[in-house]
Amino acid sequence: MPRDQAIIAITTGDSAGIGPEITLKAARDPAVRAACRPIVVSDAALLERHAAACGIHVDLRVIDRIGDADWADDRLNVLACAQPEAAAFSFGINSAASGRASLAFAARAIKAALAGEVDAVVAAPQNETSIALAGIAFDGHPSFVARETGTDAGDVYLMLCVGDTKIVHCTLHQSVRQAVASITRERVLRTIETADRTLRQMGIAAPKLAVSGLNPHAGEGGLFGTEEIEIIKPAIDAALAEGHRVTGPFGADTMFHLKGIDAFIVMLHDQGHITAKLLAPNATAAMTIGTPILFSSVAHGSAHDIAGKGIASPQAMIDAVLRLSKVKPPIPP
């Protein structure tokens, strides 16, 4: 259903960390409320405990359906997702209840996005230790979102966002040996196609993409490896034949200086993550792309050491929400 503003579901992540605090701060931010319609997905009692500890004055409107939300006043809409054990958390302490709750909040928001009730999801940081204590296998949001949306994990990619810089990863959480083996012409082409489709959905009409090589200096014409010649360049040529605006392969150590690029595509985890963390260690957002929904999280952790102190910066959450406030209807593959 067409809407004048995007509805963005914001989930609170790890109950014992800074997630609920930065969620409350982001959802109440004037720029966020002007750009979209935020709705928090969490346990109301949990939110009230964080608000009290952090000195955040907020009036919650707790609802059971997205359709009951109302943005006419300053109250904060909260889609109820009861997690009473998690609401009894201790600040900064890992627990199975917190781990289960963080994924329950995200799953509820993903369900709403699949149903078309919200336009995108932004998740506060989870805590892998708490999730492991709950006995849940978890290696990051991309594979989790893939499972929740019924998407083949091989078609899901991570895009790091730092301001206007976007970095899409062809491979992610694998050993370097496994990652190199999984880089094929078909996978590189799918990465390009998915990046282009996502950027168009985010409001960029004709995205321009740059692709890195795998080897030092993009192989130096075959002197340092042939993957660029045999795999990456043919994939770029195939993408050009499909009408995509894409160039490369470039050395991953120099590519990010290029101007006028809407997204950089890298082959390996560290080619993208080192760059993003150097640019903005605490202000990077991580988008899961390639599924039927738009899902973003922040790239920093749950910061147990400052939980409940009211000093956590919500800027990465604010940036992630504002970025997705420009979403358009999904573009078919």
Question: What's the short version?
Answer:
The protein has 333 residues and is an alpha/beta fold.
Please characterize this protein's 3D structure.
With about 325 residues, the chain is of the alpha/beta class. It has two domains: about 5-155 and about 290-325, 3-Layer(aba) Sandwich (Isopropylmalate Dehydrogenase), CATH 3.40.718.10; about 165-275, no CATH class. It is built from twelve helices and twelve strands. It has helices at about 20-30, 30-35, 45-55, 85, 95-115, 130-135, 140-150, 175-180, 185-200, 225-240, 270-280, 315-325, and strands at about 5-10, 35-40, 60-65, 75-80, 120-125, 155-160, 165-170, 210, 245-250, 265, 285-290, 295-300. A hairpin with a 2-residue loop joins β6 and β7 (about 165-170). The protein is globular.
Distance between the termini: 21 Å
Q: How does CATH name the architecture of the largest domain?
A: 3-Layer(aba) Sandwich
Question: What's the CATH superfamily of the largest domain, by name?
Answer: Isopropylmalate Dehydrogenase
- How big is the Rg? 20 Å
How many domains would you count in the coordinates?
2
Mean of all residue-level pLDDT scores? 93
Placed side by side, the strands forming the largest sheet appear as: 3-4-2-1-5-12-11-6-7-10-8-9
Number of strands: 12
Which descriptors would you attach to this protein?
single chain; 333 residues; alpha/beta; Isopropylmalate Dehydrogenase; 2 domains; twelve-stranded mixed sheet; 12 helices; 12 strands; 38% helix; 18% strand; globular
